[in-house]
Amino acid sequence: MTGRTDSLDENAVRRAYARWARFYDAVIGPVTDVGRAAAVAAVNSVARRHTGDVPLKVIEVGVGSGLSLPGYDRHMRITGIDLSADMLALARKRVDDRALGHVAALEEMDAGALTYDTAVFDVSVAMYVMSVAPNPDAVLDELARVTKPGGDVVIVNHFARSDGWVLWFERKLERVAALIGWHPAFGREQVLNHRDLDLVEERALGLLRIFTLMRFRRRA
Ligand SMILES: C[S@@+](CC[C@H](N)C(=O)[O-])C[C@H]1O[C@@H](n2cnc3c(N)ncnc32)[C@H](O)[C@@H]1O
C-alpha cells in the first residue's frame, strides 16, 4: 500500500460512518453500485452451481447499510457484519421493510476478529471495505479463515493507481482518510499473496474502471 496514515482506527471508522449513514445510500450508493452488482452476481453464480439441500452460506463483512442484500438469490443464507451501529441500523431497516428472509443475521463485529468458527461459510464477500478497515491484513486473514476450503472470497475495491496524477491526488487525499472514512491510496498488492488464497479472477468494473473485482479460491 502507498502513503498510508494510521489515523483511521476503529473509532474513527465508527465516527466517519455515523456521519455518512444519513447520506450514504443517496450519495455513495449510486457511485459504487457497479461493484456491488458485480460482487452479488459473482456470489449468485456460485449459488446456482451449488448442489445439495443445505443453502449456500455467505458472509458479507462491512455490510454497511445493506445495499447489496436485496440482490442476493433468496435461497442463500446471508450473514452481514459491520463495525458501525449506525450503518447496521439502516441494514436492519432494509431487511424489515423488504422482508429479506434470506438474511440470517446482521451483527456488530470487527471483520478483523470474527467470532465465527473456521471454515463455516461457502463464500465471503467484502465490498469497499478493505481500504476502509483499520486492519486490512487481519480482515483478509479472517475472510480466508472462515471460508471453507475450495470456497470463494470476493473483494470489490478501488485500488490506487500505480503512477500518474491520479496517484498523486490519491496520496494527497490520504491525509484526510479519517475524515472521509477510507484510504484513497490503498494498493492492490495489499490483498494479493495471501498464503491461503489463490487469485482466480480479476477485472476492472464500469466505464471508468475505477473499481476492481477480485475473486479468490480458498486453498484446501
Ligand atoms: C464504504 S462502506 C461499504 C459498505 C457496503 N459494503 C457497501 O457496499 O455499500 C465501508 C463499510 O465497512 C465498515 N467497516 C470498516 N472497517 C470494518 C471492520 N474492520 N469490520 C467491520 N466493518 C468495517 C464500515 O463501518 C462501513 O460500513
Keywords:
about 35% helix; Rossmann fold; globular; binds S-adenosylmethionine
Distinct small-molecule ligands in the complex: S-adenosylmethionine
E-strand count: 7
Structural category: alpha/beta
Sheet with the most strands, sense and barrel status: 7 strands, mixed
Task: State the order of secondary-structure elements, H for helix, E for strand.
Answer: HEEHEEHEHHEE
Helix content: 25-40%
Q: Number of DSSP helices?
A: 5
CATH superfamily: Vaccinia Virus protein VP39
Question: What name is given to the CATH topology?
Answer: Rossmann fold
Poorly predicted runs of 5 or more residues: 1-6
What value does the Rg take, in angstroms? Answer: 16 Å
Distance between the amino and carboxyl termini: 28 Å
Highest-level CATH class? Alpha Beta
Q: How many domains would you count in the coordinates? A: 1
Give, in spatial order, the strands making up the sheet with the most strands.
3-2-1-4-5-7-6
Q: What proportion of the residues form beta strands (DSSP E)?
A: 15-25%
Shape: globular
Mean pLDDT: 90
Please give a structural write-up.
By secondary structure, the chain is α/β, with parallel strands linked by helices. The protein has one domain (10-218): Rossmann fold. The protein is 35% helix and 24% strand. It contains five helices and seven strands; from the N terminus they run H-E-E-H-E-E-H-E-H-H-E-E. It has helices at residues 10-49, 85-97, 136-146, 164-173, 177-180; strands at 57-61, 77-82, 103-108, 121-127, 147-157, 197-205, 211-218. Strands 3-2-1-4-5-7-6 form a seven-stranded mixed β-sheet. Strand 4, helix 3 and strand 5 (147-157) form a beta-alpha-beta unit. Helix 1 runs parallel beside helix 2 (85-97). The chain is globular and about 50 Å long. Residues 1-6 have low confidence and may be disordered. Bound molecules: S-adenosylmethionine (SAM). The site of S-adenosylmethionine has 25 residues, from helix 1 and strand 2.
